[in-house]
Structure formats: C-alpha cells, structure tokens
Design goal:
The complex is a heterodimer of chains A (about 325) and B (about 325).
Chain A lengths: L1 E15 L6 E16 L3 E5 L6 H8 L7 E6 L2 E2 L5 H10 E4 L13 H11 L5 H14 L16 H13 L5 E5 L7 H18 L2 E6 L2 H7 L2 E6 L2 E7 H6 L4 H9 L51 E3 L2 E3 L20
Parallel strand pairs in A: 3-8, 3-9, 6-7, 7-8
Antiparallel strand pairs in A: 1-2, 1-4, 4-5, 9-10, 10-12, 11-12
Helix pairs in contact in A: 3-4, 3-5, 4-5, 5-6
Chain B lengths: L4 E12 L2 E13 L4 E5 L6 H8 L7 E10 L9 E2 L5 H10 L1 E4 L3 H4 L6 H12 L4 H14 L5 H4 L9 H13 L5 E5 L7 H18 L2 E6 L2 H7 L2 E6 L2 E7 H6 L4 H8 L51 E3 L2 E3 L10
Parallel strand pairs in B: 3-8, 3-9, 6-7, 7-8
Antiparallel strand pairs in B: 1-2, 1-4, 4-5, 9-10, 10-12, 11-12
Helix pairs in contact in B: 4-5, 4-7, 5-7, 7-8
Classes of the chains: A alpha/beta (about 325), B alpha/beta (about 325).
C-alpha cells in the first residue's frame, strides 16, 4: 500500500527583476512529478544539484505550498490544506535536514530542542515530556543525561542523532531525509545509516531519502526515483535501476560514481556527458536532457517524453525500448 | 627513484587561547614524480593544513613549528630545496612555477573583480618574461585545454559568469599556466556534482599525461582516491598512518583505521550487505590527543598496555609503510 502518492506535483517560483520587479518567468523547480512510496519502505530520490529534489521534499512536508498537483498522504490530499488543517499531519510527516550544525538552535538544550515538536502538539505534562526525551535520546544511541547540554558540546554525528531524535519525537510515519548524511564523515556516516535502518525496522518508518550520492542510495533504498531539471525521468526498484537503467541520464549518473575499489579502475566505461545541467528557468524544448544525451534523435528535441510504464517500471524517454543501457556490475557471486 | 617532494615530520600547530591544537603533528609523506598521491582522511585530520603548510600558506594562529618540506630538483644529485627554510623571495618563485594549488571552492580563490584572463595573465607574467599578448594567448590556450567552450570570449569573463564546474576548470587552467611540476589539489571536486566531478577528474588525468606533472590530491572520498591515485596516504589526527600503492592500501589496507574506513563505504553494485561496519566512537576533541597510538580508543585490534603507551613508528610491511604496533614486531 502506498503511504504517499504525489500526482502532477508542481512548484514554480516566480522570477522577479528588471523594471519595477515585474515577473520575468518562472523557475520550474518541480514540474509535474508523480511519485509513490510504499508504507515501511525507503524511496531514494537522486539527481544533481538544481534538479529540484530538495524542493520536492519540502513540498511533501508542506514547507512550501505547491503551485499545483496533489500530495496524497494516507488517503488525504495535503496540498490544499491550510496551516490549521495541516497540524495533525505535521506530526506524521517530518523532515531531517542536511547540516546538523545549522539546524539546531545553539541556545537551547537538547531537551528543549527535542521537546519542541511535542510542545506544539500538546503532548503531555513536563514530566511526561522529560521521560519522552530521555527515551528518544536512548533510541538514537545517546545518553539520557545529555538532555541538559547544549548542541555545541557534541560532534557532527552526535548532533545528527539529535536531529533524528527531534524528528522522531512525534512518532511520525513518514520521514523526509534531505541529504541527511552528506555533511558527515564516512566513519560517522555509516553509524547514522545503520541507525536509520534500525529505526525503520523497529517502528516501520517510511523514508523519502533525498541524496546526490548514488552509492549511499543503493545501500539504503528499496526503490529509486531519478530527477532531472524538475522532472522525474525514471523510477524503479533499486536492483533494477542499478543493474539495468532505462534512461540515458541514469546510465550517465551511475557511470560517474567513483568506485572505492581500485581494481575496478578502467573497467567501467564512463559516459561523458556534454555540457552542463539545464537551467530550470530555461528548460530545453522536448526532452530536457536531449542537449546532453548521446542517444538523442530528432524527435527528442521537439516532443516532451511522458513518464510511462515499461515492465512495471517507469521511464520518460522516447527510446527506452530500443536502447541497451549499462548499469553497474552486480556481483552476484559474492557471499 | 627520488621523489619530487618529501615532507618530513611536519608540524603545524594552532596556538589558541585555550591551548594548542596540533593539527599536523609529525606528518611524513612523499610525492612521486609525475604521479598522483591521494591524501585521504576525515575532516579535522590535518590533510588541508598539510597541503597549505607545504607552500607556507598558513596564517596565524596557525604556525609551522617543525619539520622539512624538500623539493627535489630534476637533475639527480642536486641538493633539494627545503621550502620551510627558504627565503620568502625564493618561495614566491616556487609557488606557481614549481608548485601550484587548486582549492575546493574556486570562488574563494579567484578574484571577483578581475576577468579570469587577467588573472592568468598576471600569474604568467610574474613568473616568465613574456609580453602581454603572448601571456593572453597562453591564457586562451590553457582555457581551451581545460575544456572551456569558446575560450576567446570566455577569457574576458568574470568568475561569477561561470558555472561551478567551469570555475574549477578556470582555476586549473590558471594553476597550470606556468607548467608546475606539482599540482596540489585540495578537494577540487567536493563542491561539484558527480557528472561534473567525473569530467574534472578525467581532465586532471589527461593534463597529467600531457604535462607530466605530479598531483597531490587531498580528498575525503575514497572512491575518488581509488579512481585516480597511484599512491595513497591515509591521515588520522595529524599523522600519516599509512602510505603505499593505491591498489594495496585500498584493497588490502594494513592499518586498522584504513580497514575500518574502507569497510564503512558502501560499494556500488554490492547490495544486500545488511549493515555497514562503522568505525566505533568519534574523533576525539582537538585538545585531547590520546596517548600512544592516537587511534587506540576506536581500534578493534587494541592491545591494552601497548597501544595506549607506545607511539608506533613507521615500518614497511609488504609495499606499505604503516604506523601500527601490529606490524614489524622484530624491528622494535
């Protein structure tokens, strides 16, 4: 069952400038995205900077009011709801930010930081909240005595644990993790990824895991969606997408990931993309990826490819059936 | 073979009000000629400070308090130049002409009010006796070489008119304009997207083949190191704990820290591994350096009464130089 389903989700930001600041067009940050996440699963959302993945995450937690489209969460459309109507859902859909150094108020103790969402939701007396904070700290692997310390006393990894504890305070069902481990060092990153996995197993959490790092997404996600300039270009199960991508952009992204095994050097063919990512205020006609695509044909420059279903997966490419694209090697012989 | 650059027992300390932070505390490493050395480690391990100390680009409160940085001449048998002891004037000649540097954030190291062409021309004319036009031609040639489209027009662009990837290309063009023997690149692709990162890494490798320079690549990304480095040096808390050929260090690491680091990175195409193996605990605070081996509080192979007492010295095991008490018992 899908816990979350977006249909045609769109977020356009007006561009002001020039004489009297009149409107000079729109940045189409998110442009008609259909996405679904099954309850208790993790959907990885990948793409390069400026592709709209963060904006999409923020629309889903309703930090932004989307321009159009729907966000069905457990049967209710969150997109048109007012702030007051949203209140019960604010507890159920939570966001984990990227940078644990700027997302924690330095003047508050961990107790106050973690209790903040509980206070908003009127979740009980002082003592109850204290107990709750203590158990949350333990759940994320910190000591309950830390409740009265301030964030500056903690390392990056520990702060990210606090951010996670705060997100979990209201017992959410969906957590949007926006580059949640990108600012952390590798050794600490593995600890946090393991923690997120344990929490999912314990309480059946559903994650939207937004990341630019395809290596990490492969590790954590059950399904993956790839975005390019505001649009979804491909979605599939992680295994299918990594072993056999259907969209040329996915193929190029996978081929660009540096493999930490030096033995793989020179074995994988790297696809050289032409030019740079398109400007979301001046999206190319036709397929937005066509100016950089090595397989593009004449119609790619004029016809916009729709996201369509092929063998249970989704892809937005005219040539998906004809192309034989390369994924990253799956070592099935390894134990 | 004689290396191009040898760092011996380098110490750079930050003298702060609360005490001394020993950011670099006895770093020894060598950069082979015409090849790529990747220096890897987590934030705070001192890799960037090491890079900056080589060119004496550290400012107060940081101070280089000891060690040698030896730059060897192309002619064998000639005395190497100790950059830490060299006069300022001599050092200025070495910068750009012998050793150039590229930083993570090109916007912070490019001037905002000069065109990229003017900045390259200035660097070239400071070090070589060439005319304005010749220097400008060189700038255009270099911009073309690093893959900036329409270099004749782009030479008159300001940095803000270029994208992140293009700025990094311009930075590399500038660094290589005087044909240095060593390029120090400090996290040159960290701020870039994967596809752009792949382009820049390819470019660096092509340029290395063409100009034959050595590259010292500072990175936190083991994947990047694995794809471009010939040699890898691993740093932890201000020291090099392991240096050796990239294939050996990253595939069969000796030091428990490197082993843990390698295991904590998910590998593409190997799904199904349930949990990542994380390094225990966290990097200790800067004022509290552990006794003995600095990694011992987090080490899985910790030997009580040894690792917390004895500071390991470097020994050679197979092709790798490693500073760990597990190795080379007989030498001690």
């Amino acid at each position: 069952m899908n816990l979350l389903e977006t249909k045609g989700l769109t977020m356009h930001f007006p561009l002001h400038g020039g004489f009297l600041g009149r409107n000079r067009g729109f940045v189409k940050a998110v442009d008609g995205v259909d996405l679904s996440i099954k309850a208790g699963r993790t959907l990885g959302l990948v793409g390069e900077s400026g592709c709209g993945k963060t904006t999409l995450g923020r629309c889903i937690v309703r930090a932004y009011e989307p321009t159009s489209g729907s966000i069905m969460f457990d049967g209710v459309d969150l997109a048109p709801l007012s702030e007051k109507q949203l209140k019960p859902y604010r507890a159920q859909v939570r966001l984990i930010f990227q940078d644990p150094h700027s997302s924690l108020d330095p003047r508050k103790t961990l107790r106050d930081i973690i209790a903040e969402p509980l206070r908003v939701q009127d979740a009980g007396s002082r003592d109850e909240i204290d107990d709750k904070v203590a158990s949350l700290l333990r759940r994320v692997g910190l000591r309950a005595e830390y409740a009265h310390r301030y964030p500056h006393a903690f390392s990056g990894g520990e702060r990210q644990r606090v951010v996670i504890a705060r997100a979990l305070a209201t017992e959410p069902r969906l957590v949007v993790a926006d580059e949640a481990v990108s600012a952390l060092d590798v050794s600490v990153r593995a600890q946090i990824l393991n923690l997120l996995r344990d929490l999912q197993e314990e309480s059946g959490l559903t994650y939207l895991f937004v990341s630019h790092d395809l290596g990490i997404v492969e590790h954590v996600a059950d399904d993956v969606a790839v975005m390019y300039v505001g649009k979804l270009v491909e979605s599939a199960s992680t295994e299918e997408l990594y072993s056999k991508p259907l969209h040329p952009y996915t193929e190029a992204l996978l081929s660009a990931v540096p493999d930490p095994d030096p033995a793989s050097r020179g074995q994988r063919e790297r696809i050289k993309l032409l030019g740079e990512i398109a400007d979301p205020s001046k999206v190319p006609a036709g397929c937005p990826f066509h100016p950089r695509c090595g397989y593009a044909e004449a119609r790619c420059a004029s016809e916009v490819p729709q996201l369509r279903e092929i063998g249970g997966r989704k892809v937005a490419c005219h040539l998906a059936e004809q192309l034989d694209l390369k994924g990253v090697l799956m070592d099935t012989t390894a134990p | 073979m004689q290396p191009l650059l040898e760092v011996r027992e380098l110490r750079t300390h930050f003298e702060l009000g609360d005490g001394v932070v020993k950011a670099v505390d006895g770093v020894s490493l060598s950069v082979p000629r015409g090849r790529t050395l990747a220096v890897v480690g987590e934030s705070g391990c001192g890799k960037s400070v090491t890079a900056r100390s080589i060119l004496r680009l550290v400012e107060r409160p940081a101070r280089i308090v000891g060690g040698q940085v030896l730059l060897y001449d192309d002619v064998a048998g000639k005395e190497p130049l100790d950059l830490l002891a060299a006069k300022d004037k001599r050092l200025r000649q070495v910068r750009w002409a012998d050793i150039a540097m590229v930083f993570q954030e090109p916007m912070a190291s490019l001037s905002l009010v000069h065109t990229i062409g003017d900045q390259i021309i200035e660097a070239v004319r400071l070090h070589e006796n060439v005319g304005k036009q010749a220097a400008r031609d060189r700038a255009i040639e270099m911009l073309d070489r690093v893959g900036i489209p329409d270099p004749k027009r782009r030479v008159d662009s300001y940095p803000f008119q270029l994208s992140g990837g293009m700025r990094q290309r311009a930075m590399i063009a500038m660094a290589l304009s005087c044909r240095p023997r060593l390029l120090i690149a400090d996290e040159p692709t960290t701020a870039l997207d994967v596809t752009t990162q792949a382009q820049i890494l390819d470019l660096l490798q092509d340029l290395q083949q063409e100009f034959g320079m050595a590259i010292m690549l500072i990175t936190h990304d083991l994947g990047v190191a694995a794809q471009v480095a010939d040699e890898v040096a691993v740093m932890y808390l201000g020291e090099v704990v392991e240096q050796g050929p990239a294939s050996a260090v990253l595939s069969h690491p000796k030091h428990p820290y490197t082993r843990a680091l390698v295991r904590s990175v998910p590998r593409l195409g190997q799904r199904g591994q349930e949990r990542l193996v994380a390094v225990r605990g966290t990097v200790p605070p800067p004022y509290e350096r552990p006794s003995g081996c600095r990694f011992h509080p987090r080490c899985d192979a910790f030997m009580a009464g040894k690792c917390d007492v004895t500071v390991p010295t470097r020994v050679r095991s197979d092709e790798i130089d490693v500073a760990c008490l597990l190795y080379g018992e007989e030498e001690r």
